[in-house]
Design brief:
The complex is a heterodimer of chains A (482) and B (226). Chain A has 482 residues and is an alpha/beta fold. Among the domains of chain A are: 64-302, NagB/RpiA/CoA transferase-like (Rossmann fold, 3-Layer(aba) Sandwich), CATH 3.40.50.10420; 412-471, no CATH class. Chain A is 51% helix and 11% strand. Chain A is built from 23 helices and twelve strands. Chain A has a six-stranded parallel β-sheet, sandwiched between helices. The longest helix of chain A has 23 residues, at 19-41. The radius of gyration of chain A is 26 Å and the shape is globular. In chain A, 50% of the residues are buried. Chain B is α/β, with parallel strands linked by helices and 226 residues long. Chain B has eight helices and twelve strands. Chain B has helices at 3-15, 23-33, 47-60, 74-84, 97-100, 104-107, 150-153, 171-183; strands spanning 64-68, 90-93, 112-115, 124-128, 131-133, 138-142, 157-163, 167-168, 190-194, 199-200, 208-209, 216-222. The radius of gyration of chain B is 21 Å and the shape is elongated. The chains are: A alpha/beta (482), B alpha/beta (226). Strand 9 of chain A pairs antiparallel with strand 9 (190-194) of chain B, so a sheet runs across the interface.
Amino acid sequence: MDSTAHAFKDNAHKALGDDQLQEALGNLRHGFTQRRAQARDQLPEFDALRDAARDIKNHTLAHLDLYLERYESKVSEQGGKVHWCATAEDARRTILDICRSVDAKLVTKGKSMVAEEIGLNDYLEANGVTPAETDLGEYIIQLRNEPPSHIIAPAVHLTKAQVEADFRKNHSELPPERSLVEPEALVQEARTMLRQKYLDADVGITGANFLIAETGSSIIVTNEGNGDLTQCLPKVHIVIASLEKVVPTLEDVSIILRVLARSGTGQEFTAYTTFSTGPKREGDLDGPDEYHVVLLDNGRSAMLGSEYQDVLRCIRCGACMNHCPVYHAVGGHAYGWVYPGPIGAVLTPSLIGVEEAGHLPNASTFCGRCEAVCPMRIPLPKMMRHWREKEFERNLTPTAARSGLKLWAFFAKRPALYAMLNRFNARLLRALGGRKGSLRSLPLASGWTDHRDFPAPQGKSFQELWAKRQNGSGATPRTPGA
Amino acid sequence: MSARDQILGAVRRSLKRAAGDGAEETVSARLAEHPRGPVPARAQLPHKEQVALFQEQAEAVQTTVDRLADLSEVPKAVSAYLSSQNLPQSLRVAPDGRLGALPWQAEAPLLEVSTGPARSDDATSLTPVFAAVAETGTLMLRSGPESPVTLNFLPETHIAVVFASQIVGSYEDAWQRFREAGNDSRLPRTVNFITGPSRTGDIEQTILFGAHGPKRLHLLLIDDVP
């Protein structure tokens, strides 16, 4: 997928002014967070399971080469084939070759972020193979020729009215007078449109939430059942997965599955968790004749052993973006590449370079909610800070920001001057704020004031208030026994 | 150099593990012993309570449950369920010995019964399960000649027969049964964990049923444990 991560600021600016997007994001701000909190409260062992899940992934990553070898030998034992792909280009070509080997015209696809990462759909289409997305959200955005804006809810940036308009435009063979007011009607229509595609497809491509070294299985975790129809009806099943998806055993994955859905959608468990191992067996009455796993590196092996290794624990639940104030404000497309939100802010510079994606680790308030809700306890803010440091070291920070920081450092090293300037600023801003107590515009702060008023300070600087609190009435007693 | 060697080499270089550090043995032991992690307390109840929890959890995700005293009641129960939902009296049954041997003709004469994997126009399927997990009301189905996978996904209505004796507390317990049944760590082509009917939240986060898989999941729970 082509990146627009370098244009984050423009993207974000546009997103803030997009009324339909803002309406759609309104649904997101509360739903996922409340449901996760409920799911957590219903399971007293939730935090203990998070610790165990983190430990499982840490152990696996520390032995990744060995687990990948065991995994591959199990896949082969069960009649499947693993294709090792160092780059996105290798993976695209491998998938196309498999499609061509069975003369495939139509390919059905379950949702896969790795397929987005390698830009699979455009590539297949350019080479005469039609990809049909089957996940409802992915189907909708494929009609719109858009990338997903969320890793588990790809069409979360759209309103129902937009979906209805897309269906009317694209399903022109259906009677125009049909009612699509009820969301059920939209789901039914997509179900009908996709049914024949499952049956006609020559190849089914799915992603994988996990790979299991013990058994050679790939796992998909879904709610719709589209991934299952995608893999059990065509002659060939291709799994595309990045190499950090491997876990050792069925017991290990049971632990991680307990925190995955609860963190993401807030469900105790998703409707379907499917373990696929090899092709159709002797006597089986359905299932594919071939089972391929396209195992992608694309920069991950270089992250091992680095300060970004922890991000390879990610299980793509989406909790970090569901709880991120920046994501809530601008949505997923503003981030400009496959993975939005806090996970994208760390992963995108690792995978496509800090030169392209340097804005993303800066798109954070450092409130820490992402780390607080991450089921794998990934220290996302710490890693964003690492990227900011790298960006600064490599002189990628814009001149204005560098001069600003220098100016700030000048005052910060002169505390008396700093305090004086702050006192002056606080009083000035209060005076400018007037009776309303807020400012409609402010020099150098248009990024804020273009979209909302800037609340004026109350008249005293933080240092003054703190000093008063320490010395004056109502302060915390400082002497024991006082 | 093959892509495989190139990638594994890159992983090894990044990990900088010392040779002879026992990593091979650690990995082999973990795979052979497959130790359990923390299992939630709710999954460790006495069996009777597990059955109750299973039903409660299944119903919480819109699975419907009909409790029967004996397997022989299944034909009547299927027919009655289809009538109650205004569904056609037609059923695609998994080629499972016990289900096939039921007195379909005598007990449900109106029901049109056929056997085999699902066809695109089958409205309702009936399948066995391998186990059922109380902690989240989850079914575990194992693919094979007697349980084709298409029956779990193509029809709009999926009916499954669950014996109380098949209900276990946790996912780990289900895998243990699976291993004890002689499978060890050899999995069939698919193992399906199914928890409620198909659903989607892709349009404005409103939960809607029957996105691609079944709109209804109905269980006939046989009380075979005294």
